[in-house]
Design a protein that fits this description.
The structure is a single chain. With 280 residues, the protein is α/β, with parallel strands linked by helices. It has two domains: 2-173, HUPs (Rossmann fold, 3-Layer(aba) Sandwich); 193-279, 2-Layer Sandwich (Pantoate--beta-alanine Ligase, Chain: A,domain 2). Helix content is 39%, strand content 20%. It is built from nine helices and nine strands. The strands form two sheets. It has a six-stranded parallel beta sheet, with helices on both faces. Helix 6 packs across helix 7 and helix 8 (193-214) runs antiparallel to helix 9. The chain is globular and about 55 Å long. It starts with a strand and ends with a strand.
Length: 280
């Protein structure tokens, strides 16, 4: 596995690979890699000849009340996981490499990003779309792999790519969970056993809503009420939102459209902000 830190160097490498007829897949991460990332790597390897994994803790997606310095980092561990999974190239740039002195441009999607998580984290989506735009311009991958865990972000990035006519194909993988249904995330490995036990209730609440939809319930308010009730049974969980939306437009729905509808939630579990969703 080759490791690059400079945009100039990775551009030269990608240009050489293209001359050899190779296709390039990109997976963007903030590091501290877990099973969810590894599944993305596997999918990317199916779609492209060469897979590049970017590891970069993006300061532009952190708000004033979120501590960037506390985000977990383990670059050496990430390198070992990438090598073990057969990744070809690791791109691990510095903040100064991605956002050099004088950098003053942002890329924002203004419609799909304004509700749900966008209400409490208005900076988050703009930070991610700006970074992804930098990657797409610099690396020009043939494919970009995204996960369904952050369904709103996936929708926002998809819309940005369409609107700005980036020539890249998207692949999306389902949410990766542990044996109890808890979503793998950077927070997962920082939580105590007791906290992870309470995190199970998030998926249980979503499953309760899905069960209603599977049994024929189409009334969105009833499904939201049931999921919210389940979440509030845990004293540790504080509900930020529970919503039923179209999985492409992120617009609220009044009726469930099977296969096109997401039941989404965000909660605080003590100091950890958790997001999750399920297709109805």
């Amino acid at each position: 596995m080759e490791v690059y830190e400079r945009i100039k160097d990775i551009k030269e490498k990608v240009d050489a690979l293209r001359k050899e007829g190779k296709t390039i897949g990109l997976v963007s991460t903030m590091g501290y890699l877990h099973e969810g990332h590894l599944r993305l790597f596997d999918e990317a390897k199916k779609k492209a000849d060469i897979v590049i994994v970017a590891v970069f803790v993006n300061p532009k997606q952190f708000g004033p009340n979120e501590t960037l310095a506390k985000y977990p980092k383990d670059l050496e561990g990430d390198k070992k996981k990438c090598e073990a999974r057969g990744i070809d190239i690791l791109f691990a740039p510095s903040v100064e490499e991605i956002y050099p002195k004088g950098f003053s441009t942002s890329v924002a999607e203004d419609e799909l990003s304004k509700d749900l998580c966008g209400k409490s984290r208005p900076y988050y989506f703009k930070g991610v779309t700006t970074l992804i735009a930098v990657y797409l311009n610099a690396i020009k991958p043939d494919g970009l792999c995204l996960g369904q865990r952050d369904a709103q972000l996936t929708a926002v990035v998809t819309k940005m790519i369409k609107d700005l006519q980036f020539d890249v194909k998207l692949c999306e993988i389902p949410i990766v969970r542990d044996e109890h249904g808890v979503v793998y995330s950077s927070s997962y490995f920082l939580m105590t056993d007791a906290q992870r036990n309470d995190a199970r209730k998030v998926y249980e609440a979503l499953e309760a809503g899905k069960k209603m939809a599977d049994q024929g319930m189409r009334n969105v308010d009833r499904i939201i009420a049931e999921a919210t009730h389940k979440l509030r049974q845990s004293l540790r969980l504080r509900v930020i939102y529970v919503s039923v939306v179209d999985k492409v437009t992120m617009k609220p729905l009044r009726e469930v459209v099977p296969g096109q509808t997401l039941l989404m939630t965000a909660v605080w579990l003590d100091e950890y902000r958790l997001i999750d969703n399920i297709i109805l």
